[in-house]
């Protein structure tokens, strides 16, 4: 199984958690291709230590300046250069790699991916998961960006997990093609690599169920009422977008415990816990959220009291919420 990741130095602890979760689900040999622009030999050695415990081989692929986006592309969004690395996969992976799964570093692999890796792509070149808002009208910039494709049934996918048929993709695609697409879109991209992949591969994607292979943890909790046990029992890949389990600057949910289950198996566990606890103690996000709830509650109670007085003057029966 070929796995591709794209990281910088700061993400070594987090991708180590993701890879540990991946390795725990598989007994087959796994080749991990690490796309990077700044890792030192010492950084590489940290990741290679995982191969002492698991059946894994690491291949470090340096992203040269020629495979970095030009200024016009980089200035279109505030994202770092790492988000563009996956656009160089076809240029850098060896010719004898026929398929590969790309995984974001902020994921947890909770079940084996063998069935996904060997699935029938039904003539498509990529398998990926729907975004929750996947079809027009999107109600955002995509309605304009992809207006030429929408009449043909354009469907938007998330690029955090992709199964790539490398043999089918190589003849037509590569980094230069994706950069040309950015120019065709007049550099109006918001999620740079993802927008470009969706634009270029419209009609070439086998769409998978996001609830199985790319479930957003926060949306699972808030939109679907799922909890830790639900996800652990039923979901193959969990994606911790936006709010990160290791950060203290956000509200948390129990689905994040799954991430910490695998963090415990890494040498970074103690440092990750300390950093998260320190940020949680000093960051004002949760406090501001709580203060806002209290303020809104006070406003509601004031409004209720006002209506109670009006009802009393009009001699209309009124039951205060505190008495219900």
Write the topology of this structure.
Elements: E1 2-6, H1 12-24, E2 30-36, H2 41-48, E3 56-62, H3 71-74, H4 89-92, E4 99-103, E5 107-109, H5 114-117, E6 126-135, H6 142-145, E7 155-165, H7 166-169, H8 175-184, H9 192-200, E8 205-208, H10 210-213, E9 215-216, H11 217-222, H12 228-234, E10 237-239, H13 257-263, H14 269-282, H15 285-313
Parallel strand pairs: 1-2, 1-4, 2-3, 6-8, 9-10
Antiparallel strand pairs: 4-7, 5-10, 6-7
Helix pairs in contact: 1-13, 8-9
CATH architecture of the largest domain: Alpha-Beta Complex
User: Which percent bin holds the helix content?
Assistant: 25-40%
The average pLDDT score comes to: 92
Distance between the termini: 59 Å
Largest sheet composition: 7 strands, mixed
Query: What coarse outline follows from CA principal-axis ratios?
Result: globular
Radius of gyration from the CA trace?
A: 23 Å
| Spatial strand arrangement across the major sheet | 3-2-1-4-7-6-8
User: How much beta, percentage-wise?
Assistant: 15-25%
Low-confidence stretches: none
Based on secondary structure, the structural category is alpha/beta
Tally the beta strands.
10
- Give the CATH topology of the largest domain: Spore Coat Polysaccharide Biosynthesis Protein SpsA, Chain A
- Give me the oligomer status: single chain
Order of helices and strands: EHEHEHHEEHEHEHHHEHEHHEHHH
Count of spatially separate domains: 2
């Amino acid at each position: 199984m070929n796995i591709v990741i794209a990281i910088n130095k700061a993400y070594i602890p987090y991708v180590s958690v993701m890879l540990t979760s991946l390795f725990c689900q598989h007994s087959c040999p796994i080749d991990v291709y690490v796309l990077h622009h700044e890792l030192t030999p010492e950084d590489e050695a940290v990741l290679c230590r995982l191969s002492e415990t698991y059946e894994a081989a690491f291949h470090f692929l340096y992203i040269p300046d020629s495979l970095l986006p030009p200024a016009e592309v980089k200035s279109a969004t505030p994202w770092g250069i790492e988000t563009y690395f996956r656009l160089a996969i076809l240029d850098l992976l060896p010719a004898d790699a026929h398929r590969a799964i790309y995984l974001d570093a902020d994921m947890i692999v909770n079940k084996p991916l063998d069935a996904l890796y060997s699935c029938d792509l039904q003539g498509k070149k990529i398998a990926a998961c729907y975004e929750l808002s996947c079809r027009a009208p999107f109600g955002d910039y995509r309605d304009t960006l992809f207006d030429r494709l929408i009449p043909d049934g354009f469907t938007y996918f998330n690029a955090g997990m992709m199964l790539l048929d490398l043999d089918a993709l190589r003849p037509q695609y590569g980094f230069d093609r994706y950069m040309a697409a950015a120019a065709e879109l007049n550099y109006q991209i918001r999620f740079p690599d993802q927008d470009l992949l969706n634009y270029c591969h419209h009609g070439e994607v086998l769409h998978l169920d996001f609830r199985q292979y790319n479930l957003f943890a926060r949306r699972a909790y808030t939109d679907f009422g799922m909890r830790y046990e639900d996800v652990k029992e039923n979901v193959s890949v969990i994606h911790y977008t936006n709010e990160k389990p290791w950060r203290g600057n956000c509200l948390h949910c129990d689905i994040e415990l799954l991430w910490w289950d695998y963090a415990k198996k890494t040498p970074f566990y103690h440092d990750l816990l300390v950093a998260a606890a320190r940020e949680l103690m000093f960051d004002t996000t949760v406090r501001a959220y709580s203060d806002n709830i209290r303020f809104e509650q006070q406003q509601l109670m004031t409004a209720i009291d006002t209506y109670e007085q009006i009802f009393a003057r009009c001699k209309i029966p009124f039951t205060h919420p505190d008495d219900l």
